[in-house]
Design goal:
The chain is mainly alpha-helical. It has five helices and no strands. The protein has helices at 7-15, 19-41, 52-65, 73-100, 106-125. α4 packs across α5. The radius of gyration is 17 Å and the shape is elongated. The relative contact order is 0.14.
């Protein structure tokens, strides 16, 4: 089996439309991405009901729709981490909207952000 190209080369190939490169990106980066997802979810926060694999899979699906022009592996990991943060914030907003009505109030968004900030604080303590 030939050696796998560096992550940055795989990202460039994926951006160019190479579906095989996308599979290789995920294969190369999956374990680290899963650890990042677990880190985003760690802490004592009962409001977060996603498993690390679910969070990671959702982030990957969002990235697949329109792969950014990643400059490096670090850029890929940072973007994926931000995508995970966005997913958690969306989930908190939805949960707060369901809890308090239609979710149109700015107070609900502020509450959702507060919930996310608590989760992020717990993550930093891990």
């Amino acid at each position: 089996m030939p050696p796998t190209p560096p992550l940055t080369a795989l990202l460039v190939a994926w951006r160019s439309g190479d579906g095989v490169a996308f599979d290789q990106v995920i294969e190369v980066a999956y374990q680290r991405l899963k650890e990042m997802a677990a880190g985003r979810l760690c802490g004592d926060n009962a409001l977060i009901t996603l498993a690390p694999a679910e969070l990671l899979n959702e982030a990957i699906v969002r990235l697949m729709s329109s792969p950014p022009d990643f400059k490096s592996g670090a850029h890929f990991f940072a973007t994926t981490s931000l995508q995970m943060r966005s997913i958690l914030l969306d989930a908190a907003r939805a949960r707060m909207a369901n809890k308090r009505g239609d979710g149109s109030s700015d107070a609900i968004v502020a509450s959702a952000i507060g919930v996310f900030d608590q989760a992020q604080t717990a993550f930093k303590q891990c």
